[in-house]
């Protein structure tokens, strides 16, 4: 079963007098309960594809269908609801609010959700029980990223989008974060999408979509993904 499908998606930006084609006839599916890695060099269209999946931007042409709804035809108000109810976001630099505790940061991510996990439960699920009252400055990079993941999953999103989630972490901490993201996909119905330019992370996922110059260069399913210990960082 597919959670979200991009079909023949084109995204053009106007940059001064010139148009930039960030996505050029891109089609791929994202499955629930799986981790999909989106790989590609700088400028290949990874963030643009993530923005499309997350309803942060709309295509110039083509369609995006999420859970049976054509979100590419949504107006801003419906896209906001889609993001709020169905999508969790994790960023390279965590984006935590410095003067709020870990639990308060997590609570902010799910304040509009009806069926959210409590911040304490969400933090426990990422291995941070006991750190609820810590401020971001009292946490390591890996712990801050775990708080950010707890914030993203507390509302029980269908889709968890992670843009370079290990980009600011050392290899050991990065492996642990990838292991956590994979276990979230494995233990819930959440579709996890990880954007990276680290080629070795790709084989850890259930599928890898490789972009190049805004086009899908390859889409590979891994029947037996490698373990995080095997990542050659
Ligand atoms: N808002 C925008 N306005 C104009 N051009 C844009 C905009 N956003 C992206 N682009 C262009 O679209 C192309 C794809 O950009 P995108 O950020 O999706 O690539 P990326 O693979 O995520 O790169 P990186 O790994 O460096 O983040 C690039 O040529 C970029 O300059």
UniProtKB/TrEMBL annotation:
Q: Which SMART domains match?
A: AAA
Q: Cross-referenced Gene3D superfamilies, in alphabetical order?
A: P-loop containing nucleotide triphosphate hydrolases
GO molecular function annotation: ATP binding; ATP hydrolysis activity; transmembrane transporter activity
Question: What GO CC annotations are associated with the protein?
Answer: membrane protein complex
Q: Which residues form the ABC transporter domain?
A: 4-231
Q: Which InterPro entries match?
A: AAA+_ATPase (IPR003593), ABC_transporter-like_ATP-bd (IPR003439), ABC_transporter-like_CS (IPR017871), MacB-like_ATP-bd (IPR017911), P-loop_NTPase (IPR027417)
Q: Which UniProt keywords apply?
A: ATP-binding, Nucleotide-binding, Transport
Q: Which SUPFAM superfamilies match?
A: P-loop containing nucleoside triphosphate hydrolases
The answer to whether keyword Transmembrane applies is no
Where does the source fall among the domains of life? Bacteria
One matching Pfam family is: ABC_tran
Which PANTHER family does the annotation name?
A: ABC TRANSPORTER ATP-BINDING PROTEIN MG467-RELATED, LIPOPROTEIN-RELEASING SYSTEM ATP-BINDING PROTEIN LOLD
Please report which protein family the annotation says this sequence is part of. Belongs to the ABC transporter superfamily.
Q: What is this protein called?
A: ABC transporter ATP-binding protein
